[in-house]
Design goal:
By secondary structure, this protein is mostly beta strands. Among the domains are: 102 residues, Fucose-specific lectin (Neuraminidase); 224 residues, Methylamine Dehydrogenase, Chain H. It contains no helices and 54 strands. A 4-stranded antiparallel sheet has the order 4-5-6-7, with no helix packed on it. The protein starts with a strand and ends with a strand.
């Protein structure tokens, strides 16, 4: 059994446990279909991957629009649907080439399923919220009538040509070999995924956020089963008598024949940011992961926005900013998106609640307590921002960019090094450390003494990601492959605890420090 997700994640179940299967891509994976242990297909945002029993390979001739759904009868008969601005496209791999089937404009295909090569269904919508069911008989696609109340259909599956189910919104429809008809269910929210094992064994999972549920078909009626999960469930699959469902924040549940139980995969998303203030500690990372340290354990912060977080800053736990694909604000109970540009933001810092800076792929923006406004647009990405006061703010990034705000203007700090800077810590007007990656030397470690920048060659290593200090003679740097460097005021010493990539470090100034990184790594020094 296989499960796929964001950032190229593929997990494989061998009957006893789940293991990570390197996909060779960082693309989000959107769909999967398998015929045998050596014939599995996965759709991504930029193409198609195939598992041959040994490794995942990108299918070189597959359409590049992004594969939304897959169904395959065998390795020489594979249907996929892709998405473009004006609708969907349908392609058939016949063992030699991809054959394109043109669809009317504004036709969107969300699901594919077939019982054999001459009996394939495609479901979705056309011309707005009008449900669509197309059938392939081996020669031609034909549209079949749906009940008039059916809007867009999202998923389809069946056990035979005369037993096919499809879902859309809260609606469930069934094909009996002659016509489509609505079947009543106890659903109270939108339905997300569907799997059919037999004529008397089918599962549907819901998108309910705070009380996810499943529906089961026993051949006579649909019954509702609670899951105990507070996360949206996205997919369900299994084999006879054994079902799995997966969802938000890596949620994974297994059906044991009587109830759903949570399964721990051991696979954790990367953590990219850490924040410590007034006894509170938060860590944030990919796929909406936000964790709060209770003093004894980490607990998820509910209702986290679905995005990758790269940086955190705030004066209080109930007034916290997070930088990612957008800027989000946490008031202690919920996240909100205040008006900000939809750039990729990689760093955020402020001197006060009404003086917050964020940097990223399209420059620097500023929060004045009421709104976000553009400040300046340097020629390349900026990765980090920090400072000591409202009139002393630093930003660093790609192409060796170093900038400084004096309270009125952002100015470039001249320097001739080639590479990219990832992190900065400022201890005072004459003490700042900047870290990153040098194009030739591997690592970049630079010190500001109040007058000029000095490149430190004493400790050359791999890419450095973040820096933080308790004092001018107690500075820590973390980076690739678990590298940790410590500055005692005279020289650098190297330490090693893990080989995982370390991405962020912070502390409370008293010597208590936190480090986070790859695969959920959390290190605490106290």
């Amino acid at each position: 059994m296989w499960a796929v997700g964001l950032a190229g994640t593929i997990l494989h179940w061998n009957g006893n446990h789940w293991t990570d299967s390197p996909s060779g891509t960082g693309d989000d994976l959107l769909s999967i279909w398998g015929n045998s242990p050596s014939d599995v297909w996965v759709g991504s945002g930029t193409g198609l991957l195939h598992w041959d029993g040994v490794s995942w390979l990108r299918w070189p001739t597959a359409p590049q629009e992004g594969t939304r759904a897959i169904w395959a009868a065998n390795a020489d008969h594979v249907w996929i649907t892709t998405r473009v601005a004006t609708g969907s496209k349908l392609y058939l791999w016949n063992g030699t080439t991809w054959v394109f089937f043109e669809l009317p404009i504004w036709t969107y295909i969300n699901g594919l399923w077939g019982s054999r090569p001459s009996d394939v269904w495609a479901v979705g919508s056309s011309n707005g919220p009008h449900g669509l069911a197309l059938h392939w008989d081996g020669h031609t696609w034909t549209r079949f009538e749906l009940p008039p109340s059916i809007d867009s259909l999202s998923h389809i599956a069946g056990s035979s040509g005369g037993d096919v189910w499809a879902i859309g919104g809260q609606a469930v429809v069934h094909w009996d070999g002659t016509r489509w008809s609505i079947v009543d269910t106890p659903a109270t929210s939108s339905l997300e995924s569907l799997w059919v094992a037999a004529a008397d064994d089918a599962w549907i999972v819901s998108t309910a956020y705070s009380s996810a549920f499943t529906l089961h078909w026993d051949g006579t009626r649909w019954s509702r089963f609670g899951t105990g999960s507070r996360h949206t469930l996205w997919a369900v699959q299994g084999d006879a008598g054994n079902a799995w469902t997966v969802g938000y924040l890596g949620e994974m549940l297994q059906w044991n024949g009587a109830a759903w139980s949570r399964y721990t995969t051991g696979d954790t998303f990367d953590l990219n940011a850490i924040w410590v203030k007034e006894g509170d500690t938060l860590a944030a990372g990919n796929n909406g992961t936000v964790l709060h340290w209770t003093g004894e354990a980490w607990s998820p912060v509910e209702h986290s926005p679905y995005q990758n977080f790269h940086s955190l800053w705030g004066n209080h736990f109930d007034d916290l900013w997070a930088a990612g694909s957008r800027i989000m604000h946490w008031d202690g109970s919920e996240w909100s998106k205040l008006a900000s540009r939809n750039y990729l933001f990689l760093g955020i810092w402020g001197s006060a609640d009404n003086d917050v800076w964020a940097v990223g792929t399209s420059g620097i923006v500023h929060w004045d307590g009421a709104r976000w406004t553009d400040s300046t647009h340097p020629p390349d990405w900026l990765r980090a921002v920090t400072g000591t006061a409202a009139n002393d703010v630093w930003a660093v990034g790609h192409s060796g960019t170093i900038m400084r705000w004096d309270g009125a203007t952002w100015r470039f700090v001249p320097q001739s090094r080639i590479g990219e800077y990832h992190g900065i810590w400022v201890g005072g007007p004459d003490d700042a450390w900047i870290v990153g990656q040098h194009d030739v030397l591997g690592s970049a470690l630079v010190h500001w003494d109040g007058t000029r920048l000095k490149f430190d060659y004493t400790t050359l290593t791999r890419s450095l990601e973040a820096v933080w200090g308790n004092a001018s003679d107690d500075v820590w740097v973390v980076g690739a492959n678990g590298v940790m460097l410590h500055w005692d005021g005279h020289g650098w010493t190297r330490k090693q605890i893990t080989t995982n990539w370390l991405k962020a470090i912070t502390g409370d100034g008293s010597g208590d420090m936190w480090i986070v990184g790859e695969a959920g790594t959390v290190l605490h020094y106290h």
